[in-house]
Design brief:
single chain; 250 residues; alpha+beta; Ubiquitin Conjugating Enzyme; 6 helices; 4 strands; UBC
């Protein structure tokens, strides 16, 4: 089959529509295999009804499982829908067959998979039911005569997240932006502060007594030896150069 055939294009667009629906709903979740899935396992989380075993009491059921298979004739032909979880509804039989009213007789290929899920959700919450030609007569009789439950059982639209955001926007309330995780800062190792080396104290030569200086001077004069530590550098004073003299710069 060509990769651009109408069927493959439809399978692709249905998957994208279902992903968008799931993002906008806290009610619907699905699983499907492959890039072009032909079967979906869909779970609805919301208020519906079930009947206990052996004609037990009618009870609320808040988890619903449905399988939808897109056969070889889809979208020209209606997909196969099978209810997997217990449900009490006029248009769903005990073995899981689902009646879609006129769509079962005259299927409309333009009806997309996400739109079909909207129809199923409305059936679960008793927003949509038909008691004139039911699959479950007992449920039809109950729906016509009951006064114990306010219908629809669940007031939420399937795209409840989208509806809630639109309602907040109409009230001028901006959704709180998600807090971004702050990056974890790696502690920086402390850089040691260089310690200035202590300045060594100036060691001054010991001051010799005057008698010692005189004695060493006499010794030097007698021996002709000069002690360097006693020598004092003399300042050399040069005579000023006259106009006729030539001064050499050393």
């Amino acid at each position: 089959m060509s990769a651009t055939s109408p069927r493959l294009r439809r399978l692709h667009s249905d998957l994208r529509a279902m992903q968008q629906l799931q993002a906008e709903s806290s009610i619907l979740h699905f699983t499907a295999d492959g890039d072009l899935p032909e079967a979906y396992q869909i779970r609805f989380l919301g208020r519906g009804l079930m009947r206990g075993e052996n004609s037990g009491p009618i009870e609320l059921q808040e988890r619903h499982e449905v399988t939808i298979r897109l056969g070889a004739g889809y979208p020209r032909m209606m997909p196969e829908i099978r209810w997997k979880s217990p449900i009490f509804h006029p248009n769903i039989s005990g073995n899981g067959s689902v009646c879609l009213g006129g769509y079962g007789t005259y299927w409309v290929p333009s009806l997309t998979l996400d739109e079909l899920c909207h129809m199923l959700w409305d059936m679960i919450r008793y927003e949509n039911y038909d008691v004139t030609s039911p699959y479950n007569r007992e449920a039809a009789l109950w729906a016509k005569t009951q006064s114990s439950h306010k219908l629809p059982l669940d007031a939420r639209p399937l795209r409840d997240r989208l509806a809630r955001a639109a309602e907040m926007e109409s009230m001028g309330i901006k959704p709180t932006p998600a807090k971004l995780d702050r990056p974890v800062r790696t502690p920086v190792a402390a850089v040691p502060v260089p310690v200035r080396a202590a300045i060594p104290p100036v060691i001054r030569p010991p001051v010799r007594p005057a008698a010692t200086i005189a004695r060493r001077a006499n010794e030097a004069e007698e021996s002709g030896v000069m002690f360097l530590d006693d020598a004092i550098e003399a300042e050399i004073v040069r005579p000023a150069a006259s106009d006729s003299d030539i001064m050499f710069i050393q």
